[in-house]
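Issue 218. Parser rejects a valid record. Input:
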Amino acid sequence: MKKIKSFTLAEVLITLVVIGIVAAITIGALYKINQERIMVTKLAATYSVLLDGFKIMVQQNGTIDTYGSGTERVNTIIKLLPQYIKMTECKKWRDCLSSEYKFRNSTVNRSPDEYYHYSLLNGAVISIKKYNNLKCVQNMAMNQKGTNEYNTPGSSIYYGTYNHSCGELEVDINGPAPPNKSDVDLFKFKLVTDGIVPAGSSKETIWTDTFDRQCKISAPLGTRTYGYCTGWVLANKNMDYLHCPDELGWNKKTSCK
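Output the parser choked on:
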């Protein structure tokens, strides 16, 4: 009688366990990738809504630098903006947002009462800062010709939005739902004279707002704020700064792949 070779029960069980472990790891990784793609898509859609609304508001009411300064400017924006973007004011911020947000392994210090909060039709929540003393001279191109802050006629304004924007706006693209994490579902935009721009764009020149200081894995926690990877996500359609080694950069690789 010819003997037929076969696996023992122990070998079969070991094989199944190995396959199960590999499958679990693979499925987990694919799930994270898919979730990030969803977040990227939601952020882009929300940005489109905000960009269109702010552009029409400016076209019909003048540039934001003409709305006054500090509190007056913000009050004018929150009075006008609902006419151009369908949104509902959150009477209590806890109805629209999480009580805690994190930047990787550290808690983000937030003062929700310093913002006006609104819920959009797509489930995103926007928060407009109530008061600031910004110069409000920067435009969307971040390369504006004219008289700069030092009253130098004919000078070229090209220094990003740091202290030169007209205000700040945060977006939680899925409201109070998790992960409630900076640069994963919480992003920042800067209000400028003629509209809105993503925070942390490639044109930021102040070191505190650059990709290297805000988004890289090796960036010191002391230099990180939150929401400054917005420009990267919208331009490169990924959140690879959460995973990649530090070779990423505007003039380097723009993806892990």
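Fixed in the parser; the record now loads. The mean pLDDT is 82.
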